[in-house]
Amino acid sequence: MNERTSPRTAPATALAPRVRDADATRLRVLEAAEVLFARKGFDGTRLREVAEDAKVTVPLVCHHFGDKDSLYAAVIERGLERFTALGWEVLHRGHTVAEQLANFVAGIIDLAARAPNITTILHREMTDGGARARPLAERMLLPLKEAATETLRSAQTRGEVREGLDVEMAVLHIVGAALYPSLAAPLVQIVWGDDPLLGEFLERRKRALVDLLAPLVLRPQRA
Prior knowledge:
- This protein is mainly alpha-helical.
- Helices cover 79% and strands 0% of the residues.
- The model is unreliable at 1-10 (pLDDT under 50).
């Protein structure tokens, strides 16, 4: 007797390529939207342009994301996921605050250099008031900020971090110092004469920032 495909198995097998195709389409739309939102801003970007660059139709974009606001939120969420993943990895990987500081500075400078579009989008969003990004920031960034603050506070109790340091403000300024040259890359290139996102200048930024921050954050080692 010939074997027959189970009616439960066949649809699942047939759907697998469709799921992969849907995921690939969604990724193409997100990547196209990220480029356009970075270049033209939210108001200047049209769904038709996103669809054309992603080589899909506008109805298909709407099928995956609903409308432009939802697509924009998905682009921001995808970008924030990369930054928060780095932050959590650093907190869980480093054995000392000195290691965590060096890993975070190197990681976030590299990530901002590799993802200039998302840093541009986030910077513009903050300049415009941050209303669209606020729910995502509260859900994704606030827990990370609180965990980083508590990590420094615990290290301060152990004597690893300088006594009297406002650790919550320290987290703010560490992040700001690491990100600012990437956010202001055109200005930095004019004044310093090098692209802050490339080559040796990028490596110099990492080394100099750790050299600057370490004595401000860490308690001096006793001889």
